[in-house]
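About this split. The held-out portion is used to measure sequence recovery: a designer receives only the structure tokens and must propose an amino acid at every position. Recovery is the fraction of positions where the proposal matches the reference. Here is one held-out target exactly as it appears in the evaluation file.
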């Protein structure tokens, strides 16, 4: 999705624009991940996550998936894809999973391709129609379906609903795309909100007056989810910008020889190619992997608690607003120890 500094978020004022187990023991890469007070499940050492992703455009979704697969504390319960060609996105996710040795079977379902019906954001769409006509930037990485293990023939939202009904309160969705699938789930079956102990979202921007891509793609869905009362952690755009991979770190990935490493390296090259010659040296911003890192090491982030809302009126349309409230259901990562977070997350990704 080309979430570059100047495109992922709108310029200020101009455009309204497997189960996861929290580590209880020492971990060589991440230090000693303290169980998160916000949303951990007392007495249950096994907490599963569900990845909801628009994998295939910007490079950070596949890196987030890699971080999950590389983290022994985490077990992935399933994946749903969102935005546009969700079947192609699901095929890319399945391709990556197939490249990781020893990974248990993970259900992957194509979810909602279109945003909720609602107001349409005025242009420009930085990663929009022109680029989307060319398809997903990393689709060339995806194997044909016939070469992949069988997948459930169910909608991604249905798969997530099944999981939440089967294990209420035990699965944390990590949403790293527009929130259409999560909102659809809640609109169709509002009672499932109580089955979600916590939701981690990469989305929104609070430290500057900008819109952010994931919210911008479906502001109504983001507003709906923010009002659900579910405990939510937000990783805003600026945190991702503060977690940019260095050139030496990226070179290490591009030299990897394992199946998963080669796939990631190819994905990076395709991502750069779609962005054009002027981005031949573009380095990934770890927006989405930081939504995973929150589960591994919340202490890397400086948090503010309160309430997040999404503006739907014309002026500030699709911007996210934060109101401090010690009893609020939301935590916003206001800052991050970027160097440490990137170094540790990247080391894990390189272990694949
Ligand atoms: Ca994403």
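Reference sequence for scoring:
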């Amino acid at each position: 999705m080309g979430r570059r500094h100047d495109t992922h978020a709108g310029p200020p004022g101009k455009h309204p624009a497997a189960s996861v187990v929290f580590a209880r023991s020492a971990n060589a890469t991440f230090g000693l991940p303290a169980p998160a007070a916000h949303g951990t499940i007392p007495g249950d050492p096994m907490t599963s996550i569900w990845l909801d992703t628009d994998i295939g455009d910007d490079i950070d979704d596949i890196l987030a998936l890699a971080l999950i697969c590389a983290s022994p504390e985490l077990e992935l319960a399933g994946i749903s894809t969102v935005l546009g060609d969700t079947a192609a996105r699901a095929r890319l996710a399945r391709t990556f999973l197939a490249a990781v040795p020893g990974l248990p079977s993970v259900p992957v379902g194509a979810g909602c391709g279109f945003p909720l019906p609602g107001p349409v954001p005025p242009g420009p769409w930085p990663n929009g129609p022109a680029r989307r006509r060319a398809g997903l930037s990393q689709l060339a990485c995806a194997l044909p379906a016939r070469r992949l293990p069988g997948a459930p023939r169910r909608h991604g939202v249905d798969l997530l609903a099944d999981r939440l009904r089967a294990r209420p309160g035990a699965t944390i969705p990590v949403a790293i795309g527009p929130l259409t699938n999560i909102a659809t789930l809640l609109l169709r079956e509002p009672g499932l909100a109580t089955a979600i102990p916590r939701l981690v979202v990469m989305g929104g921007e609070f430290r500057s007056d900008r819109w952010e891509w994931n919210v911008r793609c479906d502001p109504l869905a983001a507003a709906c989810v923010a009002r659900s009362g579910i405990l939510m952690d937000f990783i805003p755009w600026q945190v991702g910008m503060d977690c940019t991979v260095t050139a030496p770190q990226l070179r290490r990935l591009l030299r990897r020889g394992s199946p998963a490493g080669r796939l990631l390296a190819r994905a990076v090259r395709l991502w750069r190619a779609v962005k054009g010659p002027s981005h031949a040296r573009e380095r990934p911003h770890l927006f989405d992997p930081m939504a995973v890192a929150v589960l591994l090491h919340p202490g890397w982030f400086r948090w503010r608690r309160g309430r997040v809302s999404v503006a739907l009126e014309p002026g500030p349309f699709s911007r996210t607003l934060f109101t401090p409230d010690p009893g609020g259901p939301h935590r916003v990562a206001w800052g991050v120890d970027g160097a440490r977070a990137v170094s540790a997350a990247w080391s894990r990704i390189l272990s694949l």
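Annotator remark: The chain has one domain: 11-350.
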